[in-house]
Design brief:
about 350 residues; Rossmann fold; seven-stranded parallel β-sheet; 11 helices; globular; transferase; UDP-N-acetylglucosamine--LPS N-acetylglucosamine transferase
Length: about 350
């Protein structure tokens, strides 16, 4: 009988769920994969062969914690994989994990705020409650990287390089743009409250780059944008690979997907409670302190950076995406080896 893996992937936006699906779709070839998520986008994303426990994102923290506990206590699984939050997003795993020492418990260690690590004494909690920590391409300067149970992989991506369609096909069938036109993709995959900001940004870029095609990638069309600018497509990496430049947040998937397919990213370092987007966004063309700038100053800074990139961009040829290593494949092997 096949093993069952349960992945805890709570958190807003596409990020946590996308990372869980990146791992789950690889493992699902021979393992039953179940994912717990409260992402408001879950219904609009393919399950990639995984079973999704969808917790509504509007039921409040206490009810969310209760739902998580019910799933953990009433589901049979052979390995438990926790994404990012060792104690759970609301601390609901604190008394559960010690009861699960009969199964391997794996923490996926994405970068998190050091103040949170210190305030919750997470280092000792991780030592006591996890059998392995996997860092999905986030470097070696994270909070738990010196622990002996830590292993590193390349960033996790929801598509391998050979699975992506060629750029011309994506431009024609998904982005609906001509292959000869330089293309700007604005990615609004974070908080739903930020959709309006990215909508205004897309309109600004369309106005100031009339010879380019501008598309906004989002689960829902911003009220400010006409529908011909909007794309609702998952996975976003397929759209990034066909763009000349991407403008988006400094979240995990946006940064590493653009890096993998070799497309410049203008990353807005958005404020998050736990994630340090300003640190990760420095791997790209980073726009710092975006919330603290006047909107006109934000737009001007972004516009100048996009203009600089486009002037260097070469015309798209009918070719596949450059080869890259998908760390999710490595991670499945590491998790299977965990005792």
């Amino acid at each position: 009988m096949a093993e069952t893996w349960l992945i805890y992937a709570l958190g807003g936006g596409w990020g946590h769920l996308n990372r869980a699906l990146s791992l789950g779709r690889i493992a699902a070839n021979r393992i039953n994969v179940k994912i717990i998520t409260n992402s408001p986008y879950a219904k609009q994303i393919d399950d990639e062969g995984c079973f999704i426990y969808l917790i509504p994102d509007n039921i409040g923290a206490s009810q969310t914690c209760l739902r998580v506990r019910e799933i953990l206590y009433n589901t049979a699984y052979d390995r438990l994989i926790i994404d990012t939050f060792p104690r759970g997003l609301g601390g609901e795993l604190v008394d559960i994990l010690p009861q699960l020492n009969h199964i391997p418990r794996i923490l996926i260690h994405r970068d998190i705020n050091s103040r949170y690590v210190a305030a919750k004494n997470l280092r000792n909690f991780v030592i006591e409650n996890f059998d392995k920590v996997i860092v999905p391409g986030e470097g070696k300067d994270l909070a738990f990287c010196d622990l002996p149970i830590v292993e590193h992989t390349e960033p996790w991506l929801i598509r391998n390089s050979w699975e992506l369609p060629d750029k011309i096909t994506t431009r024609s069938h998904i982005l609906k743009v001509d292959k000869s036109v330089k293309t700007i993709v604005v990615c609004a995959s974070g908080k739903t409250s930020e959709l309006a900001l990215f909508g205004k940004l897309a309109l600004h870029l369309q106005k100031n780059f009339p010879d380019c095609a501008v598309r906004i990638l989002a689960a829902n069309c911003p009220q400010e944008c006409p529908e011909n600018l909007w794309i609702s497509h998952h996975p976003g990496i397929e759209c990034f690979a066909a763009a000349d430049v991407v403008v988006g947040g400094g979240g995990y998937n946006t940064v590493y997907e653009c890096a993998a397919v070799g497309v410049p990213l203008v990353a807005l370092a958005l404020e998050r409670l736990y994630d340090r987007q300003d640190k990760r966004a420095c791997k790209s063309y980073c726009i710092h302190n975006i919330e603290n700038m006047q909107f006109d100053s934000q737009l001007l800074h972004i516009e100048q950076t996009v203009d600089f990139i486009l002037k260097q961009a070469k015309s798209v040829k009918n070719s596949s995406v450059p080869f890259y290593i998908n760390g999710a494949v490595q991670a499945v092997e590491r998790i299977e080896q965990t005792k």
